[in-house]
Amino acid sequence: MIRRTVLEWGALPYGEGEDCIPEGAAKRLAAVAQASSLRREGGARILSLEDRKLKAEQVVGVVVADGVSLEILPKIDFPADQGKPSFGRIRRQLVHMLAVALNLDVATGAVTDLGWQKENLLEILIGLFSTRLADVVRQGMPRRYVACEEDLPVLRGRLDITRQFSTLAANPQRLACRHDELSPNIALNQIMKAAISLLTRLSRSAINQRRLRELAFVYADIPDVPRQSLRWDDVVLDRTNARWRELVALARLLLNQRFQTTSEGKGRGFSLLFSMNTLFEEYIARMLKRVLQGTALSVHAQGGRLHCLEEIDNGAGRFMTKPDILIKRGASVEMIIDTKWKAL
Do residues 247 and 305 share a domain? Predict the structure, then answer.
């Protein structure tokens, strides 16, 4: 597996040569990036092939294609480590920004040692998810009562009259029963099983693989559900299972990406990508909410929505504004903030 790391707006040469990645690998990466849902939804350019170089733009994350993976990190001005970019510190800062945006706590316990310097972002997130899941599942797998319908020799629960005298009319020795059963086969566990299955295929870290195999054994009896069929709306999180809240957020982050067929149809790839503009905006908004908590000021992201102009004839609004952040004192706007991820 060829592994490379580049900073946003950076470039890697491809072709022949010791410092180059093979041209085929570069094209496979570009094809996976081209198929990314982030590109389709926001129109963002992720990777481009220009002047015999694979160029990254203002998107960060990981792109994986057949036999090659590319990590794109934000361009943060940390001092170089022995003449090389401080990728470990940059990864730590990026994970911190993701944690704030997703309301995760990644600064406690064993998760503080995630191999920042030697592992790429995807392996770090896999390590974070699998470590947290292993810790939480030791306290017991969640279960809920689910409705069951079974044809049994003795009555259990309530008799289903309609089915008894239609489907089972010719088989009176069986009773059409309806009952509730405490079962682990619920949406929350199906989501965790799907995440384990996906990450097992993606991870190249021996430590992560070992932990994921142990988790796969724990979830062996949970049926496999395709990712597009997972019932996210059926997940109920309350004070009794609040410890699962962060794991659901991490699973959503990882599972909402998808395996994608490249445009050439010659392989499969995976991308976990973030627009730095969007991530930075969410990060600043959440940090402001923390700072201003307990004061008379409130933070409103993507608020406003007032019009700059009005039509003379009918008063219809024109040029709606949507500031990134509004700081309000009651109904009064105290400050308007525009966030941009770039050097001043």
Answer: no
* Distance (Å, whole) CA 126 – CA 203: 7
List, for residues 130-171, the tens digit of each pLDDT value. 999 999 999 888 888 888 888 989 988 888 888 888 888 888
* Strand ranges (E), the chain: 2-7, 11-13, 47-50, 53-56, 59-65, 68-73, 144-152, 158-159, 175-183, 259-261, 268-275, 297-301, 307-310, 317-320, 325-329, 332-337
Same structural domain, 199 and 331: no
**How many residues are given for the chain?**
344
Q: Clarify whether residues 68 and 12 are in a common domain.
A: yes
pLDDT digits (tens, 9 = 90+) for 306-333: 778 888 888 788 887 778 899 999 889 8
pTM here is: 0.78
Query: Residues 114, 130: one domain?
Result: yes
Residue 192's SS3 state is: helix
Domains of the chain: total: 3
> What residues contact 281, with CB distance under 8 A and at least 6 apart?
301, 324, 325, 339
Is the separation of the CB atoms in 158 and 178 below 8 Å? yes
Phi, then psi, of 230 in degrees rounded to 5? -65, 140
What is the extent of the structural domain holding 157?
A: 144-183
Distance between CA atoms of residues 268 and 265, nearest Å = 8
Task: Please check whether residue 57 is in contact with residue 8, taking contact to mean a CB–CB distance below 8 angstroms.
Answer: yes
Amino acid at the residue 29: L
Cβ atoms 111, 137 nearer than 8 A: no
Number of other CB atoms surrounding residue 60 within 10 Å = 27
DSSP 120-165: -HHHHHHHHHHHHHHHHHTT----EEEEEEEEESS--SEE-HHHHT
